[in-house]
Amino acid sequence: MIDVQFADVARAAERIWPFVHRTPLERSASIDRELGVHVWFKCEQFQKTGSFKFRGACNAVLALPEAAVRGGVVTHSSGNHAQALARAAQLRGLRAYVVMPTDSVPAKKEATLAYGAHVVPCAPSLADRERVAAEVQKETGAYFVHPYDEPLVIAGQGTVGLELLDQLPDVDAVIAPVGGGGLLSGLCLAIHQRQPKVRLFAAEPAGADDAARSLRSGERQQVTTPVTIADGLRAQLSERTFAILRQHVEDVIVVEESEIVGAMRLLWERTKWVVEPSAAVALAALRQEGVRRVWGGRTVAVVLTGGNADLDALPWLVRRDPV
């Protein structure tokens, strides 16, 4: 069921390097002092289309044979994979169809359209996303590029891990957000092949905690209606990503909505980086007191997954009636 290995990640790195940014690994002295941890941030908010998703989408679109993509490509996504696939298809001159929930961040929808994709709305549930995407695929003959369960996508996301180890070979642990598990699966395959002793952790919103419950129970769990400000993490683990995470991830740290907002605001204020709520989840996990005690004085890499924030709905803004 896994069907993706380290060799696929290595091939993905060779395939996509002319098209993606090698994102920086940065620090914040004030955040280090506050947490008592040597924190390095892998800044995927500076990736093309504003998130790590471009790596996986680019790898998939470039690797697919001509016969498979004559009808274009199709996916379902709340935003970041949507933009990434649209841009990757644009690079290859393919039509892109994107099924987006009606509650998607408007800026993400606008960016997807700007990259030339045809956007098809759907109700905000995984079942509706899958149903409408299947209908579009049947009508157009487009190739379905799953946002996180496609092996080529997982391999592309794994290139984040290869870069991180090149930049920080003595890292003790890596924490990344988990939604559908595509990024984390790629990180597992890349990092543990190169550095088996690096400890890998996931961070997840309490309102979408299927990964935490799945890994602790040993069986894949579902959250029927995920509720979290981290819109990019409302997806559910697939059988494939669950199988990979079970082999590599030590634990899933669950964070509350207030902790996500606090971590996001801290990053905006201290580093001046525009990050979206999903990207702040891993830092929110590291800020928990128990986690800080474990990692005090050690070197931890936090993956900041994207910067496509909704600037019209920043979570700390307080609406006041005009005077």
Write up this protein.
Helix 9 links the parallel strand 7 and strand 8 (199-205). The mean pLDDT is 94. This protein is α/β, with parallel strands linked by helices and 323 residues long. It folds into two domains: 6-52 and 152-304, Rossmann fold; 54-149, Rossmann fold, CATH 3.40.50. It has helices at 6-16, 29-35, 53-63, 80-92, 106-114, 126-140, 151-157, 159-167, 182-194, 210-217, 239-248, 257-271, 277-287, 289-295, and strands at 25-26, 38-43, 73-76, 96-101, 118-122, 143-144, 173-177, 199-205, 251-255, 299-304. The chain has 14 helices and ten strands.
Order of helices and strands: HEHEHEHEHEHEHHEHEHHEHHHE
Q: Main sheet?
A: 6 strands, mixed
Write down the Rg: 18 Å
Instruction: Give the overall shape.
Output: globular
Total number of helices: 14
Q: Under the CATH scheme, which class of the largest domain?
A: Alpha Beta
Q: How many domains is the backbone divided into?
A: 2
User: Kindly, what is the distance between the CA atoms of the first and last residues, rounded to a whole number of angstroms?
Assistant: 61 Å
Q: Unreliable stretches, pLDDT < 50, 5 or more residues?
A: none
Strand tally is 10
Strand line-up across the major sheet: 1-2-10-7-8-9
**What's the architecture of the largest domain, going by CATH?**
3-Layer(aba) Sandwich
The assigned structural class equals alpha/beta
* Overall average pLDDT: 94
CATH topology of the largest domain: Rossmann fold
Helix content: 40-55%
> What share of the residues does DSSP label as strand, in percent?
5-15%
